[in-house]
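Entry 12.
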Amino acid sequence: MRIGVDLQTVSRFARVAARERLRGLLFTEAELDHADRLGPRRATEWLAGRFSAKEAVYKLLGRGFGQGPRWREIEVLSDRWGAPAVTLEGEARRLADRAGLRAVTVTLTHQADLVVAVAAADRVRPRSAHYPKRSDSPIREDPTPGREPFMTDTLPESAEPRLREIATIAAEVFSVSVDEVIAAESFTEELAMDSLLALEFLTHLETTFGVRIDETESTRMTNLRTTYQVVAETAGW
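Predicted 3D structure (tokens):
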């Protein structure tokens, strides 16, 4: 069996839910249609629950931000009794099949400003009677080959003002210093960037530079160098 759990605060998620651009990245048309039939406050709470469920499923699949499925490939609606019902598509479905996972079950609970989601699935093709070694895990893969190193010293000198501007934005979003942003090889591992912070970072970059970053490209923004490259390629610098 595999499980995943996620905890969210509705008030924090509300900043994301308020942006149409981000709702379109996170939720399917069916999920948004359901939310649109609810009152504004209830819609935000409902979407926060669905987002938390998607994050729990990510963990069930052994993935984190930028490591595979898109959020819309995990759809969380409701069955006829109102319980969360999960449908996997694309890369999410491929990862589940590869791991031998049967239907994913999700349960949600709300209390005050908090929402907790737990996802579980049993395996129909266990690899052995023992827990697999990390290197043998059926759903973990090596990092994307060809990924650029985090160091910025090989970028052209003309990039320095933009790098500093991006680092300042990241520092504000992640509540760290600019120097910490510049030194970080991984925003996720060293600056505690989670999915919501990544979405806020994306919004600030798009607003500041007047660009619209492709969802696939946004997952590369895990350090200052690759973030600059994504923004530069999108803006045509």
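Annotation: Residues 2-124 form a domain with the Ribosomal Protein L22; Chain A fold (CATH 3.90.470.20). The radius of gyration is 19 Å.
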